[in-house]
Amino acid sequence: MTRTAPLPIEAVLPALRAALRERNRAVVQAPPGAGKSTLLPLALIDEPWLAGRRLIMLEPRRLAARAVSRWMAHLLGEPLGRRVGYRIRLDSCVSPATRIEVVTEGILTRMLQDDPTLDGVGGVIFDEFHERSLQADLGLALCLDTQQQLRPDLRLVLMSATLDAVALAAFLGGAPLITAEGRRFHVDTIHADRPPPHVETAVAATVRRALREHDGDMLVFLPGQAEIRRVQGLIEDAGLDPQTRVLPLYGELPAERQEEAIAPSSGGSRKVVLATSIAETSLTIEGVRIVIDSGLARRSRFDPGTGMSRLTTTRVSRAAADQRRGRAGRIADGVCYRMWTAAMEERLIGQTPPEIVEADLAPLALELAAWGIGDPGELRWIDPPPAASYAQARDLLQALGALDTAGRITTHGRAMIRLGLHPRLAHMIAAAGDEDSHAAACALAALLSERDLLRFQPRLRQADIGLRLAVLRGERQPPVGAEIDRGARDRARLLARSWQGQRRDDRPQSAPPAADPLADDHTAGALLALAYPDRIARRRGDERGRFLLANGRGATLPDTDTLAGANFLVVADLDGGDRDGRIRLAAPIDRTAIEARCADRLVERPQVGWDARTQSVLMRRQWLLGELVIDERPMDRPDAALVCRAMIDGLRALGIDALPWDAATRNWQARVLLLRGLGTADPDGNWPDVSDTALLASMEDWLGPWLDGISRRDHLARLDLRSALAALLTHRQRQRLDEWLPTHFTVPSGSRIALDYTSGRPVLAVRLQEVFGLADSPRLAGGRVPVTMELLSPAGRPVQVTGDLAGFWSRSYHDVRKEMKGRYPKHYWPEDPYTAIATRRTRPS
Question: Residue 810 sits in which domain range?
């Protein structure tokens, strides 16, 4: 090994070696650029406790795993893959001679699941543990369990630049804490004077300024690929020195372009590396002396309420900002421009929340079930999995058949876990059925595991995953406004064939050859329904681009999207926004395929309810998938009670006047209410409340038995409303009603005149001549209710309304008599009404 100057980590390596000879755990805290990722593993390779076994080191990212292992091999003066190698998804470089194996976190989990004793492994190093990825927390929990139960000699080393190392050492049972002090070079920090209104524009302007004012290469931190592309365009459009190159760096970039970004500049050239948070840790990008930090990062957050994850752009933590700043001081003094004010820095959170508290926990729950753990509390966690998210994860796994009702992993679950995929996609592959379906499922899973292989121009993006499948197979060219991301396409093809290869390895020798996963014509939607049954969506009415998902959430597509008019979709990728999510990837599916794929999830439900549009009871049988109506058909023999209840709901919506009232029935209602208002106790019980409000509220009781065969508003005409209401009274009450508040009153002329109670009191409208001889107004209900007399002219027009007939005779009659004689001279108008003979005619006969 040859180096130009000692690195900070070298001063503490003797203390680390001594600690690991005595203890099986240690925590190493060292600043960015201290050399811990490369020099520390090499310093342990010949330790006695390792005894020829391998040392496994976890790196959070594939790019860092390759770069770190390559640099360690260089320091040993050996080719990569001899004593130092790496193992990542779809790529490995190891040999029987490998002693230090750098792996990404999912690889460690597979190693532990395959062999919990980690035979042949002497120690595990968790690099950049402060990132607190879900897989790192899981890997540590499993390693601690292995150490406690099976391998007390297994050494565990946790390395971090910014985590609270004291607390971490305490969590590990008082493990030795080894601290490398100091940053190698000074870094000036320049804050923005004010928050920039447009971060990307401000970043591009700061890049141009820094290129003029400072020497060296530049590292610019941006939240995602889209921002990188836009900032690159802004920089290049403004013009650059020919010796300056602008290079993107993100996880999905092809390996050769990643290597170009981290390789040293040569021949006096400069480079500006536009990177995501992938460049925060582990990587040494040679020549960087300038850092520009947008202060933003992209994180995936899982919402247990919707069962969906969404990418959010958030402010970085102070710890992450310090990591980014440290990139400028690895080789010389540097400068860091921060796109936020010094005052804003005080409001940044201290540490980035661990992924375990925000992530979809379905993969974690499946791993724990495979480990034999039902309750995560059986393992040791720095931050335990949130109960709500974990319970939802187990529910999903049971629905996918990965866990049984007791929460134990099933044979199907073990087949899923071997694929190393999210349980949804693993289930789709494992349950796909025949070889052709399996091949297509592998291709779809590969498309969903990698970034989108089609790059669309703005506003031309299409969500159809079937289009991508055809492009992946080479069956069609990209549509207008799109181009192929060849790196994503090639990785998807490699992934599809690797999963298909696992199926071939498990097949009996006599089985027919498997289909090419890229040459299958099975329906994408039918396969995706296996993975995302809760995201099957149905279009809302006739609205293009608006859908309802089975989980109850809304989702949208631009009306220009080719899938906007589909009746049913399976949504594979959705931005789970607060309201309707934006569909990113989906496939059409027909009702037959839904019924076939989701037969065990479909719930049959009679749907009997009031339809305001037709003013009738809608009687249909529905088949539901979650909140989604998949199919509905007319009901042959609906339950009479359900029809009655729906009809009553309709009547309440229409109002009490929708019933077939007539004058006599309204009068009956008023008579009962008048007696009820008197407070008169009845031998058979109190008088019922038959007001409109009370009748509406109690329709189930009094009207329900009379609604047999009535299911539409126009059927109400045949309802015997009077009988239905009369049934509210006892026989004795009906008698008492007619006795106390009769419907008619016989006047002195002999006429039987109807009483009108609808004003709340009895009113007798009668011609004046028919009540001659009646000394006073009649009284009802045992004398408690006076009758209001509406006295009429011979033409039937009111001449007086009075509740005091005696007073009328004595005070007003003579004036009325004069007027009536003038108008109706042929009629009988006696001077003394008390002794006069009442008549229905013009004059008494």
Answer: 742-823
